[in-house]
Amino acid sequence: MHTLEQAQAPNPGESLAEYVRRLRLGLGINQKELAAKAGVHLQSIGKMERGKTTTLNHKTKNGLACALGVPAEYFDAVCRGIAVEATAALKFCPDCWVPGTAPDPLWMHLRAKYCFACAAELRSHCSKCNEPIISLKHRFCPYCGRSYKSKQLTNTDS
Ligand SMILES: [Zn+2]
Ligand SMILES: [Zn+2]
Q1: Is residue 105 within 8 Å of 77, Cβ to Cβ?
Q2: Final residue of a structural domain among 57, 84, 111
Q3: Of 34, 52, 84, which residue is a domain's last?
């Protein structure tokens, strides 16, 4: 069974062109309407759907995400050719990750276990209550309030 959000996630191997078109048709709007909704030039939408665009700037990405009703991260995933399934299991280095920023895609790789930069063990669960980490937009575990960033936060005086 698919939730609405999963159905709107990019399919494995789906290109940006296919993805944008699929979402747009799903909403039943034309390119012009999408351009207006997203605050993006009609030409840019046309280019995107013809597969001439493979990267999106911040503004375009957020405009599209808003207009199409999907998280902006989905466009990152589709631009980088990473399946959302792979990124769904959030993993990050508790030492290198800067709270409030997107985790490095290298950490999110399905088989990654250790940080590419410092070799610390990657974390995908809360160190206190073991709930899976669902969003790194949060700095703290929503279940128990433990900081995601460091396991030593409560052990040091600094
Ligand atoms: Zn690290
Ligand atoms: Zn927790």
Answers
A1: no
A2: 84
A3: 84
For 106, the domain range is 89-158
CB 133 within 8 A of CB 148: yes
- What is the distance in A from the centroid of ligand 1 to the CA of 57? 27
Residue 26 is part of a domain; what is its CATH number?
1.10.260.40
Among the bound ligands, name the one nearest to the CA of residue 114: 1
Looking at the fold, whether 48 and 69 belong to one and the same domain comes out as: yes
Instruction: Give me ligand 2 centre to Cα 128, in Å.
Output: 5
Centre of ligand 2 to C-alpha 132, Å, is 8
CB 139 within 8 A of CB 148: yes
Model pTM above 0.90:
no
93 lies in the same domain as 80? no
Question: In a structure prediction context, what are the per-residue pLDDT tens digits for the chain, which is 158 residues long?
Answer: 444 444 688 887 788 999 999 999 999 999 999 999 999 999 999 999 999 988 899 999 999 999 998 888 888 888 877 655 544 567 889 899 888 787 888 887 777 889 999 999 998 888 888 887 877 777 888 889 988 886 544 444 43
Q: Which ligand is the nearest neighbour of the Cα of 129?
A: 2
Measured from the alpha carbon of residue 103, the closest ligand is 1
Q: Phi then psi for 77, rounded to 5 degrees?
A: -65, -45
